[in-house]
């Protein structure tokens, strides 16, 4: 891959990076004001940046071998440049001074795989700007700016979870986050465990539409129950009087919040795995976001003797799943499960 000096003819002034993320527990609870338990993945997005010598910003993606030019305050951009434009313009609306920059991006966070590659890019860029321009922004502020950059300049209605993990998390800990009040703390992974992420190979073509539909169903369920959000319900029996599918959708959110709270209280790896298995069953049966390929891949993981538990992760309707496995056995599990998955006619891949 080309280096910063190859592209811009000088050395970078600043280097910054941020990780992608995966949810160990807490699927579809964030937009219901609930609890999540994600972790940062080892893969990271790096940015190398320096001040521009003229009025133009220049952004180069080493992964895409693509360069884009942008004038601050100018026409909106699309593609990877839109995320960077948002990270420049949103802080500027708050009075932070950012002048034209040159940026090279390099990433090993899988793109389009539900592992928050966009949040990794935004947080990395904002960290770089903070250092380069001496911006007075703390790590929580970085996450908030990243979220607004994506909402306002990319048009994606993202939650704060992904940038929070990218800004505050690491791959050795879980980030317990209350999405209503943004209280958070880092928790250790269960003893004698590590996590892996496998991609089902099924494109998530309907994921965005499906998530919009599920969000609307959750909002309607909360309205009928007379609460601000499903976060306010802590007894699954309360939702039983709702019509279908609202009762099912609400039951998943309520029970998933309970699973996150139980895991965050401190459980063994085996108990954590049982919670993950229950999460997948709920995502499949109550929330209706699984597909046969994901069910097969999760089942193969759950049957492996070195796996504590597994579930689909992200929006669903395809995409990845995550498993908690015995420490030191991740590579063995990935190889065995992907071979068995391939024998059933599917093509998956290891992401983490």
TrEMBL record:
Gene3D superfamilies: 3.30.230.10, GHMP kinase, C-terminal domain. Pfam families: GalKase_gal_bdg, GHMP_kinases_C, GHMP_kinases_N. Residues 84-169 form the GHMP kinase N-terminal domain. Residues 269-341 form the GHMP kinase C-terminal domain. GO terms for molecular function: galactokinase activity. Residues 3-50 form the Galactokinase N-terminal domain. Its EC number is 2.7.1.6. The keyword ATP-binding applies. It comes from the Bacteria. Keywords: ATP-binding, Carbohydrate metabolism, Galactose metabolism, Kinase, Nucleotide-binding, Transferase. Belongs to the GHMP kinase family. GalK subfamily. NCBIfam families: gal_kin. This is Galactokinase. It comes from Candidatus Methylocalor cossyra.
């Amino acid at each position: 891959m080309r280096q910063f000096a190859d592209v811009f003819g000088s050395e970078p002034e600043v280097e910054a990076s941020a990780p992608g993320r995966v949810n160990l527990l807490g699927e579809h609870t964030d937009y219901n004001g609930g609890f999540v338990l994600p972790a940062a993945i080892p893969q990271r997005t790096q940015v190398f940046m320096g001040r521009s010598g003229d009025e133009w910003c220049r952004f180069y993606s080493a992964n895409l071998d693509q360069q884009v030019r942008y004038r601050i305050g100018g026409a909106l951009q699309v593609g990877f440049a839109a995320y960077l434009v948002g990270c420049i313009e949103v802080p500027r609306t708050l009075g932070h001074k950012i002048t034209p920059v040159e940026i090279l991006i390099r990433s090993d966070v899988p793109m389009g795989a539900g592992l928050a590659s966009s949040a990794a890019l935004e947080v990395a860029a904002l960290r770089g700007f903070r250092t380069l321009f001496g911006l007075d922004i703390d790590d929580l502020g970085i996450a908030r700016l990243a979220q607004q950059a994506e909402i306002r300049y990319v048009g994606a209605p993202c939650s704060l979870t992904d940038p929070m993990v990218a800004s505050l998390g690491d791959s050795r800990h879980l980030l317990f986050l209350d999405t209503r009040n943004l209280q958070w703390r880092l928790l250790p992974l269960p003893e004698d465990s590590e996590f892996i992420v496998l991609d089902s190979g099924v494109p998530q073509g309907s994921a965005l539409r499906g998530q919009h539909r599920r969000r609307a169903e959750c909002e309607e369920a909360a309205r009928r129950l007379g609460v601000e959000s499903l976060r306010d319900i802590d007894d699954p029996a309360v939702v039983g009087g709702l019509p279908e599918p609202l009762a099912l959708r609400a039951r998943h959110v309520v029970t998933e919040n309970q699973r996150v709270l139980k895991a965050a209280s401190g459980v063994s790896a085996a108990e954590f795995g049982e919670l993950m298995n229950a999460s997948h069953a709920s995502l499949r049966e109550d929330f209706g976001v699984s597909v046969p390929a994901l069910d097969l891949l999760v089942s193969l993981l759950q049957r492996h003797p070195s796996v504590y538990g597994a579930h689909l992760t992200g929006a669903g309707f395809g995409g990845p799943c995550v498993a908690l496995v015995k420490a030191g056995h991740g590579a063995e599990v990935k190889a065995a499960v992907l071979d068995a998955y391939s024998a059933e006619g599917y093509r998956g891949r290891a992401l983490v």
